[in-house]
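Appendix C reproduces, verbatim, an entry submitted by the partner laboratory led by Prof. M.T., so that reviewers can inspect both the input and the predicted structure.
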Amino acid sequence: MSSPKKDEPQVIKGVLDPFFETGTEGIVWSLEEDGKEGYDALKIIDSGDHLKVYGEKGNILFDGVIDPDWRAGWKEYPKNPGHGQPCALGFWIHWTQRGWEPDLWARLFIRRKDENPLRAELIKCKRAS
C-alpha cells in the first residue's frame, strides 16, 4: 500500500469528539484519529475542512465543507449582559455548521452514554503558510 503523495490530501479517520478543557471557553468540534492517543489523536475541525460523518448504520449524516456560522444559537452570558456566545444542548460552543440547527449539529458530537461516538473522515484544508 502506497502512502499519499505530499500534495494529496490525507483522509483522517476516527470518531467525532466534543473536545473541551480549561481555556477553550466552550466545546471545540474535533475528531479523535484512529490509532493515536491523547493530543496526538486530536484533530480540530476548522473552516474549509471537508468532513464526512457516518450514522450508526453506516448511512452518511453529513458530507461537505465546513462553513462555520458563529451566530447560530448565540446566547447572552447569564452574569455578563451584552456578551455571550453560541450554545447547543446546554453547552457553550464556538460555531455551528451553516444551515444546521445548533442542537442537531451538536448531536453529531455530543452523544448519550448509551450511544457510540459517530465515525467520520476528515480532510484538512490546506492553509497558506
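The first helix runs from residue 38 to 41. Additional entries are available on request from the coordinating office.
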